[in-house]
Specification:
- The structure is a homodimer of 459-residue chains.
- In chain A, 38% of the residues lie in helices and 20% in strands.
- Chain A contains 17 helices and 18 strands.
- In chain A, strands 15-12-14-13-17-18-16 form a seven-stranded antiparallel sheet, sandwiched between helices. Chain A has a five-stranded antiparallel sheet with strand order 5-6-10-8-9. In chain A, strands 1-2-4-3 form a four-stranded mixed sheet, with helices on one face.
- The longest helix of chain A has 17 residues, at 290-306.
- Chain A is globular and about 70 Å long.
- The interface between A and B is large, with 84 and 83 residues.
């Protein structure tokens, strides 16, 4: 064993330090579609914050690149390690430490999956409302990428639901930020700086998440529209209505057809309407009483009809759940139909019609196609990019991102940049901002060990 | 005129650069109670981001300390300039640039007051929901201090309602962060880093704020409780009920008596109940229909009675408004009754009974008193500290802050540290975090010109 291997093994125990051929393939990738898998030189599975601190202090001394891994469900390649690097897997730090009903928070270790957190909080009538579409994702991963998902339109994104952290700096210092408190004005908000930093600033070893009361009654309204612009025009009206949807999604017809086909959905929509519409709006409502929910569903139906919906379908429990689940699995559907890349560009929601029309034209010019669905209320557009030629695809994606930025948006709303989108970011972002971010990075990570291929072009 | 005076005057025009005796007293203070007023050497009133950029670039070159000022309503002394410094007043940058109903945002200059923003958004049925209790405060000031206020329990704090900024770095670079978008995962969240930084990192020259639909119907329920702990125990139950209050405040009896007296309130509470209760809970509800509001008020009344309220009063329009306004003016009431200092410590809401009992004992031991009210839903306790002896008061406040931190809270929930609370912060905060924050500060502000007495002990 090399000296470094011994040092890492001494920290986590020989059984929790893998190296060389003993490293399983799983640790070489996440769910991103285009990046080559890469096995790390070492995998460490620490059990405590102190072990993480010792690993990072050692890596800083040795100049070893470090990549953090939760469940490996990321879509940007932020969990792909360096060949000469250390992968820190949080699989053993997977305990829900506390469900605090008075303060309505849970304190969890980063390796906890959303499925586990959900199961633990259900008996208390509370829940962590960030559902990024993959319940096997970890809370630590949610922190890294600032996860969003369908419920963000009502409950916000990870950033709004992560109240505090225990985090380890690359120097090996352990800090606590925020707390079981919803507000603080006592120095810089380090919690918010670490959330969304994709493992480049510090590694979270404990996360305090906000819990909301679960409302008992919910229903889903599905409205096909003949015209895409009508869907987009309906969005601010639905939001201004006071109905407070917890899901507000659009699904284009290509994607709906793929979802219906691959997920075996039965939505009861006549062929004639299905064939004549360009997109669907999905509006999910919830309330604390069944009566109010019924009223809201009726009001939503009237409103959508006023706004030009070809028809309005109220989906009953089973089929509503199936549609939402199918929508959550849109990534897998995109993969199944042969998507060459996926993006989750965000634009101001008022710019979605213009953006999507331009994207279709750009894709077509490149000899490809772009189809998708997205968080209409948030302007967060999830697109499957179909374009086999790698060079053309790269140019197409660059053009799409440039357009989004021109419209006041950003490359990614919730997936993050990872290894895959960082080159676009460095090309398109204001150099003054990139330089500032890099100075911030160095203020956390003077040795530059944390995920050096993500957000910046490190040597 | 000195060379520096000429340089600043060339940027903003001679009529917008004051120096020496021409500087009015107003620019020497904010509303903080204990810090000595200090006139700056220069006051500049820029009209554009470009002028702000030139001012900062010049100040960086000359090593001139710079303090930003909005409306001067801050409560921590963050707007008190240095004697040798430049005060940048945003009074001329006071335009609402856009109310965007599709994206439900407003784009404003930092000098816009909340009164002006409110008046501009009312016709659209939308509103900026951060109400820190002083409607003459500026949006720029809200950004600086991460303002909160009573509605934070439903609508969040400034941090959750500021979606993007145009900001000037101390080096003179102008950047744009965030946008008319609710989510982004594309590099570090510079917006969130600048919000709450009290003018120490960058100066906002444009702010994109989130607007919410205004709900038409609202009512306020007032519940006196015999026992303080009962009030605190009621808070999580009200929050878990799904009633979604937009205000959830406690007011102790001393403060209520002062409010009733100084604001001439008539709440219709019999003497017998008033005399036997320790604190009040104020629950404000709103809904899109009058019927639902009535139901919710009834349900809230039943719930509060179950939770031990001595009685429940539903305040009609006029008296409800008066009570909320009186509560918003609690700072002025504290000042009127001779408070020697005020604090807005935050603790996990479950720790409020313990915290407040300990504070009363600490104050009494110091020969003083502490009375107040606060954002019960947020654990944000506003206390008037009555203790004439400056040394004893300093020790008392240090003890109170240390206790709050021990309970998992922080020195300030929304007022910020400013000049007044920075010494406590430097004494009580984890040195590793202070050092990290200082490195972040330097990554923005290499010359150390921005508000050098705030958050850090600069030379």
């Amino acid at each position: 064993m090399s000296d470094i291997t011994t040092r890492f093994a001494d920290i986590v125990g020989a059984g929790n330090l893998l190296s060389g051929d003993a490293v399983p393939d799983d640790y070489s990738h996440d769910e991103e579609l285009t990046q080559a898998p890469q096995k790390p030189a070492y995998v460490a599975r620490p059990a405590t914050a102190e072990e993480v601190a010792q690993l990072l202090a050692t890596a800083s001394e040795e100049g070893t690149p470090v990549t953090a891994r939760g469940s490996g469900t990321g879509l940007s390649g932020a969990a792909i390690p360096r060949a000469d690097g250390l992968l820190i897997s949080f699989e053993r730090m997977n305990a829900v430490l506390e469900v605090d009903t008075t303060n309505q928070v849970a304190v969890v270790q980063p390796g906890v999956t959303l499925t586990e957190l959900d199961a633990t909080t259900i008996p208390f009538g509370l829940g962590y409302m960030v559902h990024p579409g993959e319940m096997s994702s970890s809370v630590g991963g949610n922190v890294g990428t600032n996860a969003g998902g369908m419920r963000a339109v009502k409950y916000g994104i990870a950033r709004h639901n992560v109240l505090g952290l225990q985090a380890v700096l690359p120097t090996g210092e352990i800090i606590r930020t925020g707390g079981k408190i919803a507000k603080v004005s006592t120095g810089y908000d380090l919690t918010q700086l670490i959330v969304g930093s994709e493992g480049t600033l510090a590694l979270a070893t404990e996360v305090i998440v906000k819990l909301y009361p679960r409302l008992e009654h919910s229903a889903t309204v599905l409205a096909p529209f003949a015209d895409f612009d009508q869907v987009m025009a309906a969005v601010p009206r639905v939001l201004a209505s006071g109905l407070g949807p917890y899901i507000l999604e659009y699904i284009d017809t290509i994607t709906m057809a793929a979802l219906v086909h691959t997920q075996d959905l039965e939505l009861g929509i006549p062929d004639q309407i299905r064939d004549s519409c360009q997109a669907y709006l999905v509006v999910a409502l919830e309330n604390r009483t069944a009566e109010r929910l019924d009223e809201d569903v009726e009001r939503a139906g009237e409103l959508l009809a006023e706004l030009g919906a070809a028809d309005v379908y109220v989906l009953e429990g089973g089929s509503a759940r199936k549609l939402i689940e199918a929508r959550e699995k849109a990534f897998w559907t995109a993969k199944a139909i042969g998507a060459d890349d996926i993006i989750d560009t965000v634009v101001p929601r008022g710019s979605m019609p213009k953006f999507l029309a331009a994207v279709r034209e750009l894709a077509s010019t490149a000899g490809g196609a772009a189809a998708g669905c997205g968080h209409a209320g948030d302007g967060n557009v999830h697109l499957a990019i179909l374009c086999k030629d790698a060079e053309k695809r790269k140019k197409l994606m660059g053009d799409i991102f440039a357009l989004a930025i021109e419209l006041g948006g950003a490359i990614s709303g919730e997936h993050g940049l990872g290894r895959a989108k960082t080159p676009y970011f460095l090309k398109l972002e204001d150099p003054a901002k990139v330089a500032l971010m890099h100075r911030i990075k160095r203020s956390f990570d003077p040795a530059g060990i944390l995920n050096p291929d993500v957000l910046f072009a490190e040597p």
